Amino acid sequence: MNKTNSISDIDVTITGVLARSVDIPLEFPVQTSVGLVATAPLVLIDITTSNGVVGHAYLFTYTPMALRATRELVQALGNALVGQPLAPVQLDALLSQRLRLLGKTGLALMACSGLDMAAWDALARHHRLPLATLLGGTPKPVPAYDSHSMEGLKVGVTRAARARDEGYRAIKTKIGYPTLAEDIEVVRALRKTIGDDMELMVDYNQSLSIPEAVRRIHALQGEGVSWVEEPTLQDDWNGHAAIRRKAGLPIQMGENWCGIEEMSKALDADACDLAMPDAMKIGGVTGWLRAAALAKARNMPMSSHLMHEITTHLMLVTPTAHWLERMEQAGPILRQPQRFVDGNAIPADEPGSGVAWNEDAVSRYLAS
User: Fold this and answer.
1) pLDDT in tens, 302-338
2) Which structural domains are found in the chain, ordered by start?
């Protein structure tokens, strides 16, 4: 067997890590019931190896205020990996050990997740395989929904019509307007636009009290809503469980789970019907695989949150794969942005995850 393609080969080591930050304007700023995300602040991660392969990944920090701290944390933790074998599970264990006293959560967990994703990308490139293939899957189209924000009637209907015409079979909108009547008005307008054959999901972004969540979700029954996402504070798993028992619509959560430990606690509390881990908060590729096993054990449908370049590959090795979320963040600085055809994400058929930088664009959006 060619040594370069041997999966047992651990001779390749990490020779360097580079973390950079960019802040990218969004075509559609993300308005939620709890605030506005006007740009895409990203930390770009490059892991170089002793055989000349470079692995790439990025992190989304939601606010530019967190860019510098996240970048510096990625760089510091990345420096600790230099000289280590390109073995992502082993690297995950090493970082967990180094962070045991501090705690592997919050920005520290995000930094570790980004390094993990870049390491897996490098490993797939080393073996000249798409990431999905390296993980034991087969590259094929992944059903995706178009994810929209709290945009009111005019923009919301326009975007819903565009998604319908582009072949998507589902959309998600953010609600939690000042009144229930506004929520209902928007949901009905979107349903009228997309017709009865498309699914419609809604996201409250943790904005409601438990009684108000029950009241509003009761009112959404009969409106063709497929799931209600994070109706109350994301770490109030008992509160979500109470809403779930009373509301009568499927409850979705998971984008804010920090590691599979939090996922396990939420599932033990019966907090949700559906799971949606975020690759950069659940632990990167390594954490995702553990989360997918946990969802499989519970027979729980599992969707993705953001970062669709890498999650397209991860959904292909998720036994209970449900929906992939499409929300553009990194496209303007990628050499080849993620392709979507007829409402499906098309995994890159080249080695790795498909993440590679357009350096001219990166230079344009570099942030200090």
Assistant:
1) 999 999 999 999 999 999 999 999 999 999 999 999 9
2) 3-128 (3.30.390.10), 133-358 (3.20.20.120)
